[in-house]
Amino acid sequence: MTSGISSGELQISAENDIVMARRMVRDAATQLGFGVTDVTRLVTAASELARNVYKYAGQGVMKWSSMQADTRVGLQLQFVDQGPGIPDVAQAMEEGFTTGGGLGLGQAIVQPGVAVARNRRDVEHHLRRHDGADRQSEQLSRQAEPRKPAAAVRCALLARRLVLARHGCP
Amino acid sequence: MAEPTNHPFKGQHAPEAEVQASMFQQLVETLRDYAIIFLDTEGRVLTWNKAAERIKGWTADEIIGQHFSRFYPPEDIANHKTEMELQRAARDGVFEDEGWRVRKDGKRYWANVVITALRDNDGKIYGFGKVTRDLSERRMAEEQIKRQAQEIFEMAVVPVVQVWEGIVLVPLIGTLDSQRTQQLMERLLQRVTETTSPVAILDITGVPTIDSQTAQHLIETVSAVRLLGAEVILTGVRPSIAQTLVHLGIDLSSVVTRSSLAAGLRMALSIVKMKVVSAEPGL
Amino acid sequence: MNNTAISVIKVKDTLLVTMPPDPDDSTIAALQERVLDSMDRHLAKGLILDISEVETLDSFFARTVTETAQMVMLMGGRTIIVGMRPAVAMTATQMGLKLGKIETALTVDRALDAIEGRPKPSEASHR
Q: Does pTM surpass 0.80?
């Protein structure tokens, strides 16, 4: 595990790493100046995704880093599986949530201030918007990004990014 | 005029620099609020002044020879911002920017930065001058004013009022976008928790129109309050709003409603005698 | 963290269980064991789960709580959750966390009143 003021990496390979993931994200988000509600959102989302990595892939890494666009500061979380793969991504993501469809968790996480983005460009785009993420507009497709282009349903690699952006400065 | 002995660019083809240098030297040293430093063509720190030490944290010994990207936050370094700044200064003669910088202890501050390309008599760049001003205080003052104005505004549009022991009232005015819902939920939930009020009345008489987004946000607010263990009564549903809700296909059947605020208060009073509420979250 | 991080006290015929601030997965799993064990041993009428210290409520925690409440119900008891934090309630709502038909109360006192069936003192709070 490496960590700086607001960037770092955490290996997820044991059940206890889920707690570590929560703590790291809590620290990073708090240091960046997010309020308690936003911190809770980020931490909860991180807990879900870290557990997914551990439960379904067995092994993975959580990376976090701060981002900036104009006067807004954001925290980016990235979860990468390094294990055998998740047989049914959509199903894994939907457990425990009432909102179905899409990436399940992706849509469930979508709420004011939190956006699930597929790539960096999306992330920066979300950061620049005034009103945080608009729930209606975050319709993510069901496909996760397969490691091998030829891969069909089994997804070996999942990189999910969560960005929470807010006005102002730490 | 005293011969400048520690002119950073001694030996270069600097035009008239000898004469101006000593005056400049004194100026640089006495200015408190302007960090004035010189960088070589690669961006490594050549000189340091008192203000630079005060603003940025490093002493001259610690920083001279290091690259000026030390002053930038990680995301800027990843974006190659320092290279871009030097290129722009080289191209345009000067580069000005406002943005986050990082002190030695890692703390961020908002800075105004001006980078000037220094050319010798042959027009070749021999270094860069960099002036940094810490705008944190000004910015903090601005943020403070904005925050206060925001709070006043919030109080006016999302008032949360304790009308009785155990009864919290929110007379909503206007529509509920995501941001207002945030404010509403935070303030209402906080008040309910602090006062352990078993009932919250959401009065929407002042809500002119309702769209599916506002209705959704209302439902969310109701759910969250119930999760805490308090009940919500929705009052002031005008006929036109009731019509819109039905047309939109919005199901508010799980929400307790009363036609008027008075009726809502009456019900609230009877509820304060009951303290446990059955909550159905996750709508 | 382990089994002893959860505190279980018996108040009259009700179990009062207090959760620590950031329980790990095995502690959360232990909650179910401890509750069932205690319900059985003390023939309790109900369970009050105090989560006022809990900072994060994710789907795993929510699922465990819901299941525990169902089990308590099967054993003839009633479950009431007390002290959910505003930020947790907001996140849970907006994330669509499934909590089923769970009862909640603002204070342990009120939850006890409800389970023990104590008649409420008339609230002469008119001012």
A: no
